[in-house]
Amino acid sequence: MKDFLTIATTEPSELSELVELTLAVKAQAERYGGALTGRSVGLFFMKPSTRTRVSCEVGAHQLGAQAVVLKNEEVGLGERESAADVARVLERYLDAVALRVFEHADLVTMSEHADIPVVNLLSDLEHPCQALADVATIAEHKPVSDAVVAYVGDGNNVAHSLAAAVTALGGSMRVAAPEGYEPASQYSVGVTVTNDPAEAVAGADVVYTDVWTSMGQEEQAGARLTDFNRFTVDEALFGHAADDAIFLHCLPAHRGQEVTDGVMDHPRSRVFDQAENRLHAFKAVLLHLLA
Ligand code: CP
Ligand code: NVA
Question: pTM for the full model?
């Protein structure tokens, strides 16, 4: 593959290789140190970030590559300069560019006009680097092909990538979302979609949630608080899952909204392992695209 823009367009065999590479990089970081010496990777952000910014910058450094972090305040994508022209310029300096954008179409434009790999660091459609870390974290618990994964909450970018990744790897995916917040139809193929959180979570091996209001949707926050009020993952809901079920959240979490402290801090919460796995996953993506 040239780019890593969506899980939906990643071949299942390639996704499996990426999961294996993520876990290999985690197990043997020193083996890959310096694999990308002399290469340069751009990291471009139109939205805030903690995990993505730090894991990608550190991950590139650990592989010997230089990371150049760009904020949209300086680039002005589509305002100071068109996305196509930014792409034509960046390909002259960089070996790969990874971007966090509002509109997925901006990533497609970048890919069309840059001959270097383009990586999605979150768009309105997908968050594929997150999903790679997610399925790697699930694989540390049990084979994804045997796992029942229940996502409770907004049918958003994170839900899309997770559903695409779990189903591609042969796992079973359920999504519980309020009416009107279900995942897009192209991400619902082979997925059990319900409006009942308890039905989705019953017997599941993994319970996953994300924020009710994503970045860029802040003006809807009030309405969403009401619409999602039955969708908090609390200990009672988590109790419907399998006895050894793990809890995942891409973070940042809004404790008291989509998840309670009791579940975030539960002995079977794996949210900080999952956050760590963002580092190994991004290194795997860079190695796969550039090494
Ligand atoms: N999960 C995730 O992408 O976190 P950040 O928004 O902090 O990068
Ligand atoms: N769905 C969230 C994920 C943040 C990592 C958002 O897009 O803001």
Answer: 0.98
